[in-house]
Protein backbone atom coordinates (compact mmCIF):
# COMPACT_ATOMS: atom_id res chain seq x y z
CA UNK A 1 0.00 0.00 0.00
CA UNK A 2 1.18 3.51 -0.76
CA UNK A 3 -0.37 6.37 1.23
CA UNK A 4 -0.16 10.15 1.27
CA UNK A 5 1.26 12.09 4.20
CA UNK A 6 -2.04 11.79 6.07
CA UNK A 7 -2.37 8.02 5.64
CA UNK A 8 -4.98 8.13 2.87
CA UNK A 9 -4.45 5.10 0.61
CA UNK A 10 -3.40 6.10 -2.91
CA UNK A 11 -2.81 2.63 -4.34
CA UNK A 12 -2.87 -0.94 -3.07
CA UNK A 13 -1.91 -4.33 -4.47
CA UNK A 14 -2.30 -7.87 -3.25
CA UNK A 15 0.59 -10.33 -3.43
CA UNK A 16 1.47 -13.72 -2.05
CA UNK A 17 2.96 -13.82 1.42
CA UNK A 18 6.23 -15.14 0.01
CA UNK A 19 6.88 -12.13 -2.27
CA UNK A 20 9.19 -9.33 -1.17
CA UNK A 21 7.45 -5.97 -0.72
CA UNK A 22 9.97 -4.11 -2.86
CA UNK A 23 8.75 -5.98 -5.98
CA UNK A 24 5.53 -3.94 -5.74
CA UNK A 25 7.18 -0.53 -5.36
CA UNK A 26 7.11 0.52 -9.02
CA UNK A 27 3.69 -1.02 -9.82
CA UNK A 28 2.25 0.83 -6.81
CA UNK A 29 3.79 4.12 -7.93
CA UNK A 30 2.37 3.57 -11.43
CA UNK A 31 -1.07 2.90 -9.92
CA UNK A 32 -1.24 6.25 -8.06
CA UNK A 33 -3.89 8.36 -9.81
CA UNK A 34 -3.20 11.99 -10.78
CA UNK A 35 -3.57 14.23 -7.73
CA UNK A 36 -5.12 17.64 -8.25
CA UNK A 37 -3.51 20.60 -6.58
CA UNK A 38 -4.60 24.20 -6.34
CA UNK A 39 -3.70 25.03 -9.94
CA UNK A 40 -1.91 23.60 -12.93
CA UNK A 41 -1.59 20.04 -14.14
CA UNK A 42 -2.39 17.24 -11.70
CA UNK A 43 0.63 15.75 -9.93
CA UNK A 44 1.44 12.28 -11.22
CA UNK A 45 4.14 11.35 -8.74
CA UNK A 46 5.19 12.15 -5.19
CA UNK A 47 8.16 14.41 -4.46
CA UNK A 48 9.47 12.05 -1.77
CA UNK A 49 9.01 8.38 -1.00
CA UNK A 50 9.47 7.29 2.61
CA UNK A 51 10.09 3.60 3.19
CA UNK A 52 11.56 1.23 5.74
CA UNK A 53 14.70 -0.91 5.45
CA UNK A 54 12.91 -3.53 3.38
CA UNK A 55 13.14 -1.13 0.42
CA UNK A 56 16.87 -0.38 0.82
CA UNK A 57 18.15 -1.50 -2.58
CA UNK A 58 20.36 0.70 -4.75
CA UNK A 59 18.50 -0.46 -7.87
CA UNK A 60 15.20 0.95 -6.56
CA UNK A 61 16.84 4.12 -5.24
CA UNK A 62 18.20 4.77 -8.75
CA UNK A 63 14.83 4.04 -10.36
CA UNK A 64 13.11 6.47 -7.98
CA UNK A 65 15.67 9.21 -8.73
CA UNK A 66 15.11 8.61 -12.48
CA UNK A 67 11.40 9.25 -11.92
CA UNK A 68 12.17 12.49 -10.11
CA UNK A 69 11.26 11.06 -6.69
CA UNK A 70 13.64 11.55 -3.76
CA UNK A 71 13.96 8.24 -1.86
CA UNK A 72 13.87 8.62 1.92
CA UNK A 73 14.62 5.00 2.74
CA UNK A 74 16.15 3.71 5.98
CA UNK A 75 19.49 1.96 5.47
CA UNK A 76 19.92 -1.70 6.35
CA UNK A 77 22.60 -2.43 8.91
CA UNK A 78 22.42 1.06 10.40
CA UNK A 79 21.23 1.55 13.97
CA UNK A 80 17.71 2.86 14.44
CA UNK A 81 17.38 6.58 14.83
CA UNK A 82 17.25 7.68 11.20
CA UNK A 83 14.26 9.87 12.04
CA UNK A 84 12.05 8.11 9.48
CA UNK A 85 9.81 6.86 12.27
CA UNK A 86 8.38 10.38 12.48
CA UNK A 87 6.73 9.86 9.09
CA UNK A 88 6.60 6.05 8.78
CA UNK A 89 4.02 5.73 11.56
CA UNK A 90 1.44 7.11 9.12
CA UNK A 91 1.75 3.96 7.00
CA UNK A 92 1.53 1.70 10.04
CA UNK A 93 -1.61 3.54 11.16
CA UNK A 94 -3.13 2.98 7.71
CA UNK A 95 -2.46 -0.76 8.03
CA UNK A 96 -4.14 -0.65 11.44
CA UNK A 97 -7.17 1.02 9.79
CA UNK A 98 -7.26 -1.83 7.26
CA UNK A 99 -7.12 -4.40 10.05
CA UNK A 100 -10.33 -2.97 11.50
CA UNK A 101 -12.00 -4.86 8.66
CA UNK A 102 -12.01 -8.41 10.01
CA UNK A 103 -12.25 -9.99 6.54
CA UNK A 104 -8.87 -8.43 5.78
CA UNK A 105 -7.19 -9.08 9.13
CA UNK A 106 -7.76 -12.82 8.81
CA UNK A 107 -7.94 -13.90 5.20
CA UNK A 108 -11.01 -16.05 4.71
CA UNK A 109 -11.25 -15.57 0.95
CA UNK A 110 -9.62 -18.24 -1.17
CA UNK A 111 -10.02 -16.26 -4.37
CA UNK A 112 -7.51 -13.45 -4.78
CA UNK A 113 -9.96 -11.34 -6.82
CA UNK A 114 -12.48 -11.32 -3.97
CA UNK A 115 -9.82 -10.43 -1.42
CA UNK A 116 -8.51 -7.66 -3.72
CA UNK A 117 -12.06 -6.30 -4.03
CA UNK A 118 -12.48 -6.24 -0.25
CA UNK A 119 -9.09 -4.56 0.09
CA UNK A 120 -10.05 -1.86 -2.43
CA UNK A 121 -13.43 -1.35 -0.75
CA UNK A 122 -11.72 -0.93 2.63
CA UNK A 123 -9.30 1.61 1.13
CA UNK A 124 -12.27 3.49 -0.34
CA UNK A 125 -13.97 3.61 3.06
CA UNK A 126 -10.76 4.82 4.71
CA UNK A 127 -10.43 7.51 2.03
CA UNK A 128 -14.03 8.58 2.56
CA UNK A 129 -13.43 8.88 6.31
CA UNK A 130 -10.29 10.94 5.67
CA UNK A 131 -12.22 13.25 3.34
CA UNK A 132 -14.99 13.70 5.89
CA UNK A 133 -12.48 14.43 8.63
CA UNK A 134 -10.53 16.97 6.57
CA UNK A 135 -13.75 18.59 5.33
CA UNK A 136 -15.08 18.94 8.89
CA UNK A 137 -11.80 20.50 10.07
CA UNK A 138 -11.68 22.93 7.14
CA UNK A 139 -15.23 24.23 7.61
From TrEMBL:
Question: Domain Transposase IS4-like spans what residues?
Answer: 3-125
One GO MF term on file is:
transposase activity
Q: Tell me the Pfam families matching this sequence.
A: DDE_Tnp_1
Which biological processes are named by the entry's GO terms? DNA transposition
Q: Which NCBIfam families match?
A: transpos_IS5_3 (NF033580)
Protein name from the UniProt record: Transposase
Amino acid sequence: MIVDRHGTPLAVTLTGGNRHDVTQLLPLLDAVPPIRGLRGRPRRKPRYLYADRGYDFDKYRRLLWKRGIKPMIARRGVAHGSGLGKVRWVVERSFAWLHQFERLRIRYERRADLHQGLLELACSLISLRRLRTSFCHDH
